[in-house]
Amino acid sequence: MCQPEGFVVLGKENFVCRLRKSLYGLKQSLRQWYKRFDSFMLSHGFKRSDYNSCVFFKTVDGSVIYLLFYVDDMLITAKDKLEIVKLKSQLNKEFEMKDLGAAKKILGVQIVRDKKFGMLYLSQQGYIEKVLHCFNMHDAKPVSTPLAAQFRLSSTLCQVSNDDIEYISRVPYSSKVG
Fold first, then answer.
1. DSSP assignment, residue 126?
2. CA separation for the pair 40, 35 (Å, rounded)
3. pLDDT tens for residues 67-95?
4. pLDDT for residue 174
5. What's the pLDDT at 178?
6. CB-based contacts of 54: which residues, under 8 Å, 6+ apart?
7. Computed from CA positions of residues 72, 77, 81, 84, in that sequence, does the dihedral angle turn out positive or negative?
8. How far apart are CA 107 and CA 59, in angstroms?
9. What is the DSSP-derived secondary structure letter of residue 97?
10. 108-139 burial, b if ≥16 CB within 10 A, otherwise e?
């Protein structure tokens, strides 16, 4: 590592700079960001979920406030809107952030609210359509089970030519099935 241009110290040209905080784009950056965020949340009385380390929760006056995050997306939910405002204020003091208002979509899940009936709907229709287009299956006919239950696949069912092998190797079957 060399000293940055314009910051070379005469007589100490072989010295290197010591980083005091993580730089964006380094492999360790996400880990450092998570450690900082995790420590902040725990210091404010939140608990980390045993099942997902990106889910934090806190019980306030018998009501639970949840904070879910993934890299730089965050979703806060609680019955008491005042608790949400309070948490946003605390987060804003510690981190540079932008409030995008009520969530409409997070991690490919669309959020639709029906305030008249007090209902909340979650949908992955957009994500599913994107996957179908990716695999050129958007015009496929929907069926409950693509193969009959008694149908058994076996390597002896088809003879494979070199052309078939080459074609098959370019089709991301595991991604499609996933």
1. H
2. 9
3. 998 877 889 999 889 999 999 999 999 99
4. 67
5. 63
6. 68, 69, 70
7. negative
8. 25
9. -
10. eeeeeeeeeeeeeeeeeeeeeeebeeeeeeee
